[in-house]
Amino acid sequence: MKGPLHLFQGYGVELEYMIVDRTTLDVRSLADHLLRSSVGEPQLELQRGDFAWSNELALHVLEMKTAGPSPTLKGLADGFQREISAASQYLAEVGARLLPTAMHPWMDPVRESRLWPHEQGPIYQAYDRIFDCRGHGWTNVQSVHLNLPFAGDIEFGRLHAAIRAVLPLLPALAASSPYVEGRAGEALDARLDYYCRNQKRVPAIAGLVIPERVWTRSGYRRKVLWPMYQEIAPLDPAGVLQEEWLNSRGAIARFERSAIEIRLLDIQETPRADCAILRLVDAVIRALLGEKWVEQEALRQLDEAVLGGVLQDCIRTADQAWVADPGLLRVFGFTGALRAGELWSRLTESLLDGAVEPDVVGPLQMIANRGPLARRILKVCGREPDRSSLRDTYLELADCLERGELFDRG
Predict the structure, then answer these.
(1) CA dist list (Å): 292 to 90, 106, 299, 351
(2) Average pLDDT of the chain?
(3) Looking at the domain assignment, is residue 311 inside a domain?
(4) CATH number for the domain that contains residue 166
(5) Each residue of 307-332: pLDDT tens digit?
(6) What range defines the domain where residue 136 resides?
(7) pTM for the whole thing?
(8) Long-range pairs, 385-393, Cβ under 8 A, ≥24
(9) Count: domains in the chain
(10) What percent of the chain has pLDDT over 90?
(11) Cα 249–chain centre separation
(12) Alpha helices in 221-357 (DSSP H)
């Protein structure tokens, strides 16, 4: 039997999309329609060669993912685009399509939410009973997850330290959820705004969203997992939710598969953009692990409360958020305060300039020049758009997804 993969020997990528009506763009609860097997029964996962489709909590959300670790991030955008084309053909037969961005712009989750009712239904029912999942942050969220492998405590500790440093800056790069129920929200990354608050009834589940300073498996179990299990136990006497996936920090340790899963990236308008962002995030984490700017100990000194404050600023104003903490700036090789968008632009120039293909450079240049997708959408539609203009813009975004094109307005 093969042992766990070592650092950067594999990548697990998951992309989530909404299923909506092809004309109105209202949500359509059709994930089980797409996930029926050859015998007609809804499946949790359909294997499709190097990729797979799977369910999520909401019946209008479809997850596409690599079927096991991919040895590289290169080429994944083309593979995901083919999966989108296949799903689009199926959905067109029932008057539906896939919609990108991290939140549906006018969905009313109280009225429109339907949870996955098939296999693993008891898990979702337990979440609903404890937290009431008919809300933003539960059934109106679409994200990108990046899974990075490790082998043993030494690699886990080093990887965890590097990921913690990157997490608070991710909304500045990937925010794509500016609207809530038809109006601009208080944050450019409204998905994460809700994500940070939706489990406050059991605070240990998400903590400060930025993970604690823990570098070993035993320490993680003691400081993160066990307190979480103990806190939810009175609400979950059957122990249905007391598994490591209950953890809702921005990056979670998945010891069962020897990987850390990064959860703070909004889905973009096309896999080209998602995979370009992942290539940059991967390059930054590699540089931190290689001690390009500081030694490992400097990463381990970063306080989660300080990082959490930076995260909240980036959730609200994305690329325009000021990054001023000297400790965080130092680990990326900077000495003076700068906006988060400028920080990412400098990192892109330093780590990727001239070293990657145009399909990576193009989306990153778009983000650097015009801001993350949320800012571009907001510039086109305004803060209080009418339904018609909002629908027209999101139809364009759906077309971008089907065609593999960037949203180049705004």
Answers:
(1) 47, 44, 12, 10
(2) 94
(3) yes
(4) 3.30.590.20
(5) 999 999 999 999 999 999 999 999 99
(6) 113-393
(7) 0.96
(8) 385/179, 385/182, 385/183, 387/106, 387/182, 390/105, 390/106, 390/179, 390/182, 391/24, 391/25
(9) 1
(10) 85
(11) 12
(12) 226-232, 271-289, 296-300, 304-317, 326-331, 340-351
